[in-house]
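Work through this protein:
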Amino acid sequence: MIAVTNLSKSFGAVQAVQAVSFSAPNGQITGLLGPNGAGKSTTMRIIAGALEPDEGSARVDDVDVLRQRIEAQRRLGVLPDRRGIYQRLTSRENVRYYGRLHGLHGAALEARIDELMKLLEMEDIADRVTEGFSTGQKVKVAIARALVHNPPNVILDEPTVGLDVMSTRAMRQVIRRLRDAGHTVLFSSHIMQEVASLCDNIVIIAHGRVVAQGTADELRHRAGHADLEDAFVQIIGSTEGLE
């Protein structure tokens, strides 16, 4: 489970996150939805321990991220918005390196890498140097790296960006499998159809604040629209005065 309470973070005069609170339960997919600059990625970076909040707290399986950062990170698999793969290494070597950082080694690590190559349909790029990879191929490597230690909690920032139709379908299936296996999944996306079909709970963030949360049906009912995109626009539009 991931829980954040009254998170706030400023960058100079810019208030990126303002008293954000929500929880992402075990065995559910929780989506962060909001316009560019709303504070989604900043919130995810705080949970991942890459940024320290000015105020508030983040907990992963009841482990305080600020006070026990390494322990919290052991319980997390993170796909950041910047993929940051090592271009001189092959896909397999990238994943192996991260596996070793998490204490995996030997036959167990190699079996896990093979499992991920198959799961993410990466067999054709498993032993290729990643320099020159397409965006979609880089995303696959970064996700395999995030999942190598089989973390109970997974953070995915725009996981289907740059993927083709078939790879997107496969990625969504992977996300559902993580949920069905009891993992906590927190992810952001700009694709309304994706959010509506995948998420058990949706947290809408605008201007650094949580402005609405609930199931897709609850949000549509609140806004009085049958379409989630129309509901999203209605909810965001009603918060314009918060800036």
